[in-house]
Structure formats: C-alpha cells, structure tokens
Amino acid sequence: MSGDETEQRRLLCSMSLGYTAYHVWAAQARRERKYNIARLLEASSNVKRVRAERAFRALGEVGNTATNIGRALAGLEPATVATGPVTGTGTLSRELMSRAAAALAEGRDLLAEELGDLYVCGSCGELMEGDPPAVCPACGTVREGFLSFRAAEGMGILGPQSIVKKLEQTPATLRALVSGLDDELLAYPVGGRSLKELVGHLTDMDVVFRERAWLILETDNPRLPSAHPPTIARAAAYRTQPMADLLDAFQTSRQQTLGLLRGLTMAAWHRTGYHLYFGTIPLTHQGNWVVEHERRHLVEMAQIRNDLLTQRHEERPIVLPHNLVPEVLEGE
Length: 332
Ligand SMILES: [Zn+2]
Fold this sequence. Notes:
By secondary structure, this protein is mainly alpha-helical. It has helices at 3-31, 35-58, 65-74, 91-105, 160-178, 183-186, 195-218, 243-261, 266-269, 283-311, and strands at 118-121, 127-129, 146-149, 272-275, 279-282.
C-alpha cells in the first residue's frame, strides 16, 4: 500500500465510524427534544459522510454500476487500519460541541442565538456556520453545492400542501388505529402509555400548534410561547375517558386548525414568529413540527396496537398509509 492509499484507508475508516456515531447521536438528541444540538450532530455526521465518500472514491472502489454490483456480490472487504479519534477533530466542530456541552450542563438545548445556520460543503465536507460564503473556503465549491442545516428547516421541509394533507389524514388514521379494541385495551399502558392518552396528547399538541399559528398569522413576528407544550406525562388523565369522546375532541380541534390553514397564501405561510429555541421561524416550520410530532406518535400507536393484539394471540395487524413509515423517530 502506498502512503497515500494508507491515508485514504485511514480516512475511510475514521469518517465512516464518525458518520455513524454522529448520526445516531443526532437521532438520540431529537428524542430528547434537543433540536439544535440534533442539527449540529446531523451536520457533523454529513461532514464525515462526504469525506468518507471522497476517500472511498479515491481508493478506486467506485466503478460503473455493473462493476459495483459485482463488487457487492463478491463481498467488498476493505482493509481496515487504526484510525485515531473519529469525532471532535475539527476546530469549529470542537467549538460548536463545547457550546452544546455548556447548554446541556444547564439541562437545555442550544438556544436559537447560540447556534447559527450550518452548512456542509457537499464536495469536501467543510463545516460552516452563519451566512454561507459564495464558495467553500477549503475547495472552492459554489454555495449551491452546500448541504444546509438551517434552523428554519430543522423540523422538516414539507410545503403547505403536504402539511395540510397530512394533518387531514390523521383523524381517519387514529380511528383505524383504535378500531376493534375494547375500552380496557385502549386504556392499557404499553411501555407506560395507552392509546387513549396518546390520542389526548395529540389533541393537546394540536391546540398548541393552532395557538402558535394564530399568533404568527395575526400579529407581527410574535414571540411564540416558549413554555414547553403539554407533555405526554400530563395525558394520563385521558385513560378514564371514553375513546369516542377523545376522538371527537381531536376531530373538532383538527377541523379548527385546518379551518385556519386552508386557503392561506404562500406569503401567509412564510410569516414568522420568534421562538427561543427555534429562532425566527416561518409558519411552515411549525407545520412541519406538528406533522413530525404526530408521525412519531402514530407509529408508536401502531406498535402499541400490534403489541396488544399479539398479546391476545390475534393476527390483525393494521396497514398504515405508507408515508407514515418513519425514517427517523423524532422527539416532541
Ligand atoms: Zn469544499
């Protein structure tokens, strides 16, 4: 192996491991509702991915697809080498991680003003914070080739039509998820939560979202309530309520929310509010937030339903709309 090849192999190992570490840590941060720290970790993960891919190509491991399938079948077996540290290796990276550590020491996420928009050069993996330069300072790639990890897109990038469509689907999905289960099963906690309290929790969150949306639409750049939305722990009281009432409450709230959102212009969807953690964000950000939150809980409910039915030795798995299958399980 030449010295250059050894170095490329070291990079491939180091960057691949770093990519995995940061990616999984980002998913965990989302579960803990540390969305800005999750954004930092996801950007860091992409730094490593871009660099791993560069090293992989430099080693001549990428041919045309027919060749690559041949390699795949043959069982690609790159030589592994000692890597040294695989994370926290860059200067900016270390500075950003130190900011995250300071925030976590206070038991919180990074605030909006403590972490700017992040960009990763798609060619070389250079990490940048704040307004991106016209070209990558490391390799000269134009700004259009950067991957963005912006606060405004931190909750997803669905547009108004997709947001409204997904919000419209939820009542029917909820009815399907609870159909054929008796009251005892609906109140039965699996992993600490029952289907009843999850339906009640989704209604609570819909109300929070509608209030924020109303503020954004009716006032100029309002400060959005920074109090944490109602947590699932407070929803235990819903266990004693009839499911029909819980579903009705959700449906009523959702109709009001959709009534507020339907027919809004693009300009209205781009109106902004200020949130202590998310920063200055458009209504689309909050739409993505509620959709993502709902998706996570609908998947959880499908799992609970499956567990309840399996315990009763019945084979009645429910088929969810395929677009509900999560890529990542987001926190709330
Ligand atoms: Zn670059």
